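Chain A, query sequence.
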Amino acid sequence: MAFNIDTFKGVLPGGGARPTLFSVELTGAEYYKVPFLAKAASLPASTLGTIELSYFGRKVKVAGDRTYAEWSITIINDEDFAVRKYIEKWMAGIASHPGNVRTAGAVGPSAYTADLSVKQLGKSGSATALRTYTFEDAFPTDIAEIPLDWGDTDTIEEFSVTWSYQFWTAS
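Chain A, predicted structure.
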């Protein structure tokens, strides 16, 4: 295939998706600040396992089970600590600090899970997503530390949150 810039441009009619145009939402949770303060996220990976079978000394590979890696986002911290407090309270409802007991009401997962989504947005400025990935039955498993340092000037605090979920869907 010969080099042709017009052919290359022709396969990118939209100019390419931009990693800065995204929104993170907690569906089913009332928290309104997350889409504005979620500074970093990722579109999810997809892993399909492989099963190797032996047949007369030869390895035959067949598709195995799908697995889903944990998902992380980075949050900008405001002085009201609203998002961090919300996620800390969510985690405490799953397993309290003093007694390691569930305080979120019912014992089942529906009491402590919610759907999360990350939306890839386009350059047109439209609120309509190019692609939406929804993480079904998600819950926070890790809220990262926030380093404090007298020498760390001209910055705003950030922290990451890691989520487990059952599976993701794309639309």
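Helices lie at 5-10, 34-37, 82-94. The first helix runs from residue 5 to 10.
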